[in-house]
Amino acid sequence: MISTERRTQGVSSEVVRDFNRRLILNFIRTRHLISRADLARISGLQRSTVSLIVEQLIEERWVLEGPTGRLPRGRRPTFLRLNDERVIIAVDIRPNQSTLALANANGSFLFQEVLPTSSDPKATIQAIIRSITRLIQSNSKVKVEGVGISVPGRYDHKSDRLVFAPNLNWPEIDICSPISKATELDVAIENAANACALAAMWFDHMEDCRNFVTVTVSEGIGTGIWANGQLVRGLNGMAGEFGHVPLDPTGPPCGCGGRGCWEVYASNRAALRDYLASGALGASADVAELTFQDLLRRADQGDKRAILALETMAHYVGRGMRMVVAGLAPERIIVVGDLTKSWKLFGPIIESEVQAQVLPGGCLPLLIPAYEDGMARLRGTVALVLQKDFGLLSDAAV
User: Fold this and answer.
1) 63 Cβ contact list (under 8 Å, min separation 6)
2) Residue 270 in contact with residue 263, Cβ under 8 Å?
3) Which of 48, 175, 178, 316 would you label with 282, given CA atoms 20 to 30 Å apart?
4) Which fold has domain 4-82?
5) In what order do the strands lie in the sheet with 332-337?
6) pLDDT computed for residue 320 by the predictor
7) Strand ranges (E), 200-262
8) Which of 204, 200, 105, 186 is nearest to 149 (CA)?
9) Sheet holding 78-82, edge to edge
10) How much is the pLDDT for 192?
């Protein structure tokens, strides 16, 4: 019989080995080209330990040996880099359209395809499966690590079901199993705002920040919470639904069934609604064709009604953020969405609204616009898949 002490020692050794492996793998990922000697220096590990880990990663085809460097004297170092033939399929599901992409471990996208999102979830899932199958067949020389999917709602990881997606208007459904079964790939699914938080931590060098919130402003309002170095999901994956906290219980109806929710006033749809209500397009205009990008362009061209609608939206974005600041006291708030394209115009409005009600003793968090033309969610799904091998060294979810 193995003693408890010996079992504990075995588990502890395994944890240390796994930690060191993830540490070395992440240094290679973030430094792009790095030698074994430099890995030992920045990691604090012994050279023999680094060499063993590197050889294992080379054997697993995660790491390749690249060019050699030059030194004034001594042996020329061989640089290490990630294998670009280990790839991830990233999927971003949105109410009107979904994007499917192929990316490497460094977050560089090699292919993108846009698919219509159907009101029938099963039809959309089948369309995604067909696209993934074609993508695998046309990239037979690479190894697909898995599929990462972001959804505009809350996904319960215990039941593996989408449980709350008012803007998508889908019922509770298992998205993971049919895609995994059809493609024979591991599938990881995450809320869109949480995916943006993972993207910030993984690719945007946020390691020094243990408390931040991502606010996604699109068809609705989503928030992803990174607190004390961990992604916060909460019970049934429902943490962070500030977008459905009412600012005015007598306000306009919301897709969630409530009234006057934050996103009713601060989303892209809210700005379009206000602009159309101003009569700017006239009675005969085809309002169905107007997009939020059109509204931004009209504002850039000096359309006063477009500017007013976007200013109103910005005021409400800031007022809703007061809940986030008072409730979570984040160091930073990362704002993701098309509105950030015009941050010089509307960012100061958001900042002034947040600052207007900072509690005594509190501090205004740093507001960071992250306009990436919709790429933050996709980058987050890449990180979601890679966590099983790379980890974040603080990647637990609570």
Assistant:
1) 25, 28, 54, 57, 80, 81, 82, 83
2) yes
3) 316
4) Arc Repressor Mutant, subunit A (1.10.10)
5) 230-232, 221-227, 212-217, 332-337, 366-369
6) 96
7) 212-217, 221-227, 230-232
8) 186
9) 34-35, 78-82, 63-68
10) 93
